[in-house]
Amino acid sequence: MSSNNLLIVGLGNPDKDYERSRHNCGADYVKFLSDRIKITLSKEDKFFALYGSKKIEKKNIHLCIPTVYVNESGQTVSAIKNYLKLSNTDILIVHDELDLPLGKIKLKEGGGHGGHNGLRNIIDSQKGDASFMRMRIGIDHPRKGADVVKYVLSKVNKKDRKILDTSFENTLDILDSVIKGKWQQAMLELHT
User: Which residues are catalytic?
Assistant: First the structure.
């Protein structure tokens, strides 16, 4: 990664009804991160987002939570990307992942949307360029026959929230590698 910028976008729906739901894991993660690395998020209408930034180790770290619905996230990513003149390789999208066990976090470079409407919208907004990084937060699959949409939009119970909070904490160890753009190293550390 050549740039001095890293934009971390946490996907989630803006309404109170969706707060702390499985689908809002990405937004929850960015809130957690803003707290840990002391970046204040403020409403930024031109980005359709809550946004804040800070310089850490010569790198401009930009945190963002879209204030639009997950399936319109591309609007936010495009607005910030164009304004800050970023390339897709400067972007890390944090989102919920049905295909991973609860609390399992994986980094992924590029790839398809895997049925995630937020990722689909971001890829579409980038004219099909999916070369951004992703941090996938496992939310597990609902039991057989359950309504997936209902499951994804439902609140996380206390026990599961503890698991998620612990896995968020565990990512702090790789944050340094992520900030330095050492993705392979970060993946290795995170996945072992």
Answer: 23
